[in-house]
Amino acid sequence: MPFLIAPDGTRLAYHVDGDGPPLVCLPGGPMRASAYLGDLGGLSAHRRLVSLDLRGTGESDIPRDTSSYRCDRLVGDVEALRVHLGLERLTLLGHSAGANLAVRYAALHPERVAGLVLVTPSVMAVGIDIAPEERLAAARERSGEPWFADAYAALEGITQGRATPEAWAAIAPFWYRRWDETAQALQAADAEEKNHEAIPVFAGDGAFAPEETRAALAELSAPVLLFAGEVDVAGPPPAMEAFAGLFPKAEYVVQPGGSHHPWVDDAEHFVGAVNRFLK
To answer: How many distinct structural domains can be found in the chain?
Structure first.
């Protein structure tokens, strides 16, 4: 298992899969170990995937200063990884909450970014508001599923401020195109692979500076792929299109029938779109 040492002395692990030009992958969760990314549906056949276990997750050490879980402070770990890998510039892939870290890095180190791939990204770092109806409209596309009634009722409760643990568990099928054994196994691993103490710190006070970040992204010269899922309730297409509009060089792709884990939903479509962008 390869490691690097962050500027504060924390040992960080990363995982390498495949050959070719490196693609540094930042997991979501937030603060989930990178294992769930796997080979991103076979993308490792085209790129050398370098998946970072954020501090306090996976094989990386818990830092002495746990306030360093904050998203803006994790930017230093990404920069340390770039230096460790001996790369002048990074091509970054951020999934879900990991996209917050990717765009924070791009805003602070634009000269070090060769490209960004934002996969069903969280919008916290850029301050985009997602209306409850946008999420519910995406959810209603799944009305033919046998689990829909209970999951939709739970989602309605969450959008109305009733976010109980039971409600979050009930909406789990929405995160995947097919609620099959593969999806259920990934979802079951979610709780075990997250650092639950780090989650509130990741998005704590000072983690994001949306206005500054949007201004910096408007000047970013690197190309960006924003990859959305047609039925993703976490990042419904209207919000994702607005996100893509923040960049001067953005390609916006919506995976038909895709949800929050598009490489699981349709690996061929996902890998094809990402590989075409990266060539």
So the answer is: 1
Residue-number span of the structural domain to which 115 is assigned: 3-131+195-278
Question: Which helix or strand (DSSP H or E) is residue 204 part of?
Answer: none
pLDDT tens readout for residues 199-249: 999 999 999 999 999 999 999 999 999 999 999 999 999 999 999 999 999
Tens of pLDDT, residue by residue over 79-126, are 999 999 999 999 999 999 999 999 999 999 999 999 999 999 999 999
- Residue 93: strand pairing partners: 25, 117
We report the CATH number of the domain holding residue 259 as 3.40.50.1820
Backbone angles phi, psi at 29, to 5 degrees: 130, -75
Is 173 a domain residue? no
Residue 208 domain-assigned (yes or no): yes
Q: Say how many CA atoms lie within 13 Å of 267 toward its Cβ.
A: 10
Indicate the pairing of strand 11-17 with strand 3-5: antiparallel
Give 63's DSSP letter. P
Q: Which pLDDT score is estimated for 40?
A: 98
- Residue 34 phi, psi dihedral angles, 5° rounding: -75, -5
pTM: 0.97
> What is the C-alpha to C-alpha distance for residues 83 and 40, in angstroms, rounded to an integer?
24
Give the 3-state secondary structure of 12-37. EEEEEECCCCEEEEECCCCCECHHHH
Residue type, 59: E
Q: Please say whether the beta carbons of 166 and 151 come within 8 A.
A: no
